[in-house]
Specification:
This protein has 4 helices and 2 strands; from the N terminus they run αααββα. It has about 190 residues and is mainly α.
Length: about 190
């Protein structure tokens, strides 16, 4: 942030390009997955629904791999410190909300994969790479996993709404540099 030192603040440090790339690719994939997931569930049985479910699974597993890569990168290159203008309660809430997002981005693909397995549906990632079936076919387990996947998706949407609200608060209302740390052009 230009002139931060002159106002007694340390300059806002941005995330590294790898973290930014993983963040924005994941964000695009997640918003696409949520839209696809909401749309596909009401489709009539047929080829379009089957293709939509296949793409949902493929992209979901990709999000899982991206999230694992983000976790590894985060261990290698921890996030930059928050700007001084960030309040104490925001400093406490930020890691909790980020952890919730990361947990959900791991849990959703896993429950989806387990659900497919319990439903007796094999997954071939992008039609090429066969994934093992980690659980046997079981209608009761399928229903429990479907319910868990459903509620995890709604929880993700709620946490994402809070995340976007925080972006608006920091960048539009406070202009404290938090959002600009993740913006690709920095």
């Amino acid at each position: 942030m230009p002139g931060a030192e002159a106002h007694g603040q340390r300059p806002t440090l941005g995330y590294r390009p790898v973290a930014k790339g993983l963040h924005w690719i994941t964000a695009a994939a997640v918003f696409g997955l949520l839209a696809l997931g909401l749309w596909m569930t009401d489709l009539p049985i047929g080829l379009t629904k089957l293709e939509a479910y296949a793409w949902h699974k493929w992209i979901g597993l990709t999000v899982f791999l991206l999230t694992v890569a983000r976790l590894i990168w985060r261990w290698h290159a921890p996030p930059p410190p928050l700007p001084d203008a960030v309040t104490r309660w925001e400093r406490r809430l930020a890691p909790v909300s980020h952890a919730a997002l990361l947990v959900l981005l791991v849990a959703l693909p896993i429950t989806g994969w387990l659900m497919s397995s319990a439903g007796g549906v094999e997954i071939f990632w992008f039609g090429l790479v066969p994934l093992p079936n980690p659980v046997p076919r079981d209608a009761g387990l399928f229903e429990r996993l479907r319910t868990a996947h459903h509620w995890l998706a709604w929880t993700l949407m709620a946490v994402l709404a809070l995340h976007v609200a925080a972006v608006i608060r920091h960048d539009v209302l406070r202009r404290d540099g938090v959002f600009r740390r993740m913006w690709p052009s920095r």
